[in-house]
Amino acid sequence: MTSAQKPAAGRVALVTGASAGIGTAVAEEFAQRGYAVGIVGRDAKRLDEVRRRIDAAGGRVLALSGDLGDLGFAESVVRQVAAAFGRLDVLVNNAAARELKTMREMTPAEWDRTIRVCLTSPAFMARWAAEEMERHGGGVIVNVGSMMSRQAHGVSAAYVSCKGAMESLTYDLAALYGPAGIRVVTIAPGAIDTAMSSTLTNTPAADGRSEDPIREFSESMAMLGRWGRPEEVAKAVVWLASDEASYLTGTTLVLDGGWSRMHMPPAVTQAILQNAARG
Known about the structure:
Blueprint: E1 12-15, H1 21-32, E2 36-41, H2 44-56, E3 61-65, H3 71-85, E4 90-93, H4 108-134, E5 139-144, H5 157-177, E6 182-189, H6 195-198, H7 213-221, H8 230-241, E7 251-255, H9 266-278
Parallel strand pairs: 1-2, 1-4, 2-3, 4-5, 5-6, 6-7
């Protein structure tokens, strides 16, 4: 067991969007490392399934179901988790809402809803979490961004805007709360095998490689040749929150299998080489 994997007895993490995908994996990874975990999600049934798994494994967990677009509920989540476990050490702002619409079709109401869930709520949850963290000498806030904010594609304008803003928010919060011993970082995943990612393709989540052209293209653009797994993101998030990353703040970790540095699909590269060889 490495030092990053040592049990974190006494520490408390709050994970939003924990009823599925990355959020579930993050919550379960924290629990496995000895954290007490507060989990939040809109799907009460699925959230309770996560709660029962953590509880059955001997973890301490508090499940709170509701809509984080309601800022009153969002604040109550922070306060309830801190009260239940006596402190709050880590906040993971993972919850998201996404409309697969271009700016041509998106309504103001859809825009506002996305901004509220994906940016406004995380910003204020960070503020309320920091108030709890300051009482105990520090903590870590991990904002879950997206590689989509760095690459143009013409869809999900509100979601992409929020994820880009989350990075800027991270830098500002890190400057504000650093003197209080609170680190703030963003993790920006690429194509991760979740239900949300599967809505971009015709491929069910966890289906592995398929004949879906969208998935095939995205896999070819990742230098590792595949989509990431939620547990891979979870391990990175837990590391960011650990003492192993104690000097890391005000920055973004891109976890995309190399996609953002890939210029073109391997098939195009191969065609260029073949043309050059004929040449």
